[in-house]
Amino acid sequence: MKFKSKSAFVPYILWIALFVIAPIGLILYYSMLDLNGEFTLVNYRNFFSSAYLTMTLTSFWYALIITFFTLIISYPTAYLLTKTKHKHLWLMLIIIPSWINLLLKTYAFIGIFGLYGPVNAIVEMFGFDPTQILFTDFSFVFVAVYIFIPFMIIPIFNALDKMNPSLIYAARDLGASPLTTFRRVIFPLTIEGVKSGIQVTFIPALSLFMITRLIAGNKVITLGTAIEQQFLVAQNWGMGSTIAVFLILIMFAIMRFTRTKKKGGRA
Amino acid sequence: MRSTLTPLAKVYLAIVFIILYAPIFYLIFYSFNSGGSMGSFEGFTLEHYQAVFDDNRLLVILINTVIVALLSALIATIIGTLGAVGIVSLRNYKIRNIVLSLNNILIVSPDVVIGASFLILFTMIGVKLGFTSVLISHIAFSIPIVVLMVLPKILEMNTNLIDAALDLGANRRAVLTRVIVPYIKPGILAGFFMALTYSLDDFAVTFFVTGNGFSTLSVEIYSMARAGITLTVNAISGLVFIVTVGIVVMYYFITKRSRKTEGSTR
């Protein structure tokens, strides 16, 4: 394109410098400062202590479970949605709940899982004693999966929607069973959608802190909660930045792992 | 080729939809409860909605939230659109790819990291935490999504249009405002609405950079929810739901209209 306007580009470049590059640099810089602002690597040593390593592994484990359940619920949903008559309308109805404020949805579960909430009312109907579901691992995973389902459905839906249906007919005509068709044709062709779904689920699942605070009690079980704790409660910005550095590293690793490849040849 | 859904598939979809909507309607249902809890429904009342509108502090927070959302979306749309135009005009593909990767960093970055790093940034350059810091943060994290919405529109644009305009004596400004912007309007609109929802939805970043005096709805809901169940929050969610559906419907009709006018001019 011959069109060029340098001056119009300036605010955007400034934005990149100030709000993309500088923050990462600052996080790196602060991760090497102790509480008194002295230069040190003690935060990194602390991070590799057993307490933080356990926390990191726990956080990873939760994120894995959350991503797994989100995926096995979302994939069939996305697949079935593409088969409905007004599929874009139905997709819209899936998207709407994702636009309701996250905090409100989380708050709803404080009521739903509460001791006097509807879940416990059902439990009682079957003659069991009501139990505290809030502040358990189950409630945390459930709420997180609930929050992420629409974000997982959208990319998978788009991938399925783009797929050429004659490929499926071809597979069937050639004698493939529905399972083989899925395993060898449908799933490989929609893997890019699955990857972006995993990306938008796994990284936030590692860093969530409002859900853990509100639903899982005050336990520090995710990297996000730990960062919030260090920055806003303990006021130890150095340690918080160190955890953030590792979160950023993990983020880059996941982005590499889930990178959508633009394959050559015909699509 | 219509393959109809089996009953089992329908049941599955129904369950997913019920689970997605149940918590929202549960909240709204109990916002009309005259009892104080989300456990037993005692009678119909609008007192919780009354409470929202009687609470001056809450109203100020609501207005703040809307102002921040509209302002940040507007500014982010301007900077992002110009940025997208700039990215396309980059001839060197290597540089273009680097800029695009930098653009996407904030989209995939965890909210907590964005919040924490912005907090450090504002403290270092001496921006007072409050309205300014929240507004700047919201602009900052909305810009990349605007770029991503606008970019495909510019790429699909026929560059001959620009050459023609330049040949016919249009200056650069006229090319931008009279040729490029009208063509990429749907992308700009989508970017604006995405920025709007990003801002309205954000909690984590705001929570980090908000300081003491200033609050947005998300942060306020968080502190109310941490204190326990108050049906005022339910009333807020009822209002938020109506506004959200309103925005979705509005967006739907605006894009439909612009699609129609686009079709008629062709």
Write the layout of secondary structure elements.
The complex is a heterodimer of chains A (267) and B (266).
Chain A: H1 6-31, H2 42-47, H3 50-81, H4 87-99, H5 102-112, H6 118-125, H7 137-162, H8 165-173, H9 178-189, H10 191-207, H11 210-214, H12 223-233, H13 237-257
Helix pairs in contact in A: 1-13, 3-7, 3-10, 4-7, 7-10, 8-9, 10-13, 12-13
Chain B: H1 7-30, H2 47-54, H3 56-89, H4 93-108, H5 111-125, H6 131-155, H7 159-167, H8 172-183, H9 185-201, H10 204-209, H11 217-227, H12 231-265
Helix pairs in contact in B: 1-12, 2-12, 3-6, 3-9, 4-6, 6-9, 7-8, 9-12
Q: Brief overview, please?
A:
The complex is a heterodimer of chains A (267) and B (266). With 267 residues, chain A is mostly helical.
Question: What key attributes describe this structure?
Answer:
heterodimer, A: 267 residues, mainly alpha, MetI-like fold, 74% helix, globular, disordered C terminus, B: 266 residues, 12 helices, 80% helix, 0% strand
Could you walk me through the main structural features you see in this protein, from its secondary elements to its overall organization?
The complex is a heterodimer of chains A (267) and B (266). Chain A is mainly alpha-helical and 267 residues long. Chain A contains 13 helices and no strands. In chain A, helix 3 packs across helix 7. By secondary structure, chain B is mainly α. Chain B has twelve helices and no strands. Chain B has one domain: MetI-like (MetI-like fold). The mean pLDDT of chain B is 88. Chains A and B meet through helix 1, helix 3, helix 4, helix 5 and helix 7 of A and helix 1, helix 3, helix 4, helix 5 and helix 6 of B.
Poorly predicted residue ranges of chain B = none
Global geometry of chain A? globular
From the 3D coordinates, which CATH architecture of chain B would you assign? Answer: Orthogonal Bundle
Element string of chain B (H = helix, E = strand): HHHHHHHHHHHH
Indicate the mean pLDDT of chain B.
88
Largest sheet of chain B: none
Number of helices of chain A: 13
The CATH superfamily of chain A is: MetI-like
Overall mean confidence score, pLDDT of chain A:
88
Share in helix of chain B: over 70%
Let me know the CATH homologous superfamily of chain B.
MetI-like
Question: What is the succession of H and E elements of chain A?
Answer: HHHHHHHHHHHHH
Radius of gyration of chain A: 23 Å
User: Hey, roughly how much beta strand do the residues of chain B contain?
Assistant: under 5%
- Terminal residue distance of chain A: 26 Å
Which term fits the overall shape of chain B? Answer: globular
Assign a percent range to the helix content of chain A.
over 70%
Structural class of chain B: mainly alpha
Reading off the top of the CATH hierarchy, the class of chain A is best stated as Mainly Alpha
Count of DSSP E strands of chain A?
0
